[in-house]
């Protein structure tokens, strides 16, 4: 699964891993690949995430009979978030900051009562 939560010194953060090599994927060089051979009746195709063109070529070589299409990772994510899912990033950040503030306040109250 390319979308993971990585443990960093400050806590867990979202990250993307390459389906081919397992390394971190950057928005600048990452690609989304999918088979255009999927039957139209399915109406969708699973995607693969790769860190660069070399990994895209290596992944494609695993299934030479399949024809793959590609889109830049950053373009895919922007389209997914803004268009397909209609996520308001500012509203999500505001909600999460409020939830974090409430949690901190709850922890401080618990500590004060101990």
Compute the gyration radius: what is it?
Answer: 19 Å
Number of DSSP E strands: 5
User: Count of DSSP helices?
Assistant: 3
Shape: elongated
- Hey, roughly how much beta strand do the residues contain? 15-25%
* Count of discrete structural domains: 1
**Helix share of residues?**
40-55%
Reading the helices and strands in chain order gives EEEEHEHH
Q: Kindly report how far apart the N and C termini lie.
A: 42 Å
Task: Please give a structural write-up.
This protein has 114 residues and is of the alpha+beta class. The protein has one domain (3-87). It is 41% helix and 23% strand. The strands form two sheets. A three-stranded antiparallel sheet has the order 4-3-5. A two-stranded antiparallel sheet has the order 1-2. The chain starts with a strand and ends with a helix. The mean pLDDT is 88.
């Amino acid at each position: 699964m390319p979308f993971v939560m990585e443990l960093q010194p400050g806590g867990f953060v979202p990250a993307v891993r390459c389906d081919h090599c397992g390394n971190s994927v950057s928005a600048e060089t990452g690609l989304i690949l999918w088979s255009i051979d999927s039957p139209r009746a399915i109406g969708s195709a699973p995607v693969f995430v790769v860190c660069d063109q070399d990994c895209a070529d290596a992944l494609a070589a695993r299934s030479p009979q399949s024809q793959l299409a590609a889109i830049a990772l950053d373009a895919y994510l922007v389209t997914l978030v803004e268009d397909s899912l209609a996520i308001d990033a500012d509203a999500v950040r505001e909600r999460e900051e409020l939830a974090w503030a409430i949690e901190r306040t709850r922890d401080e109250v618990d500590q004060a009562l101990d």
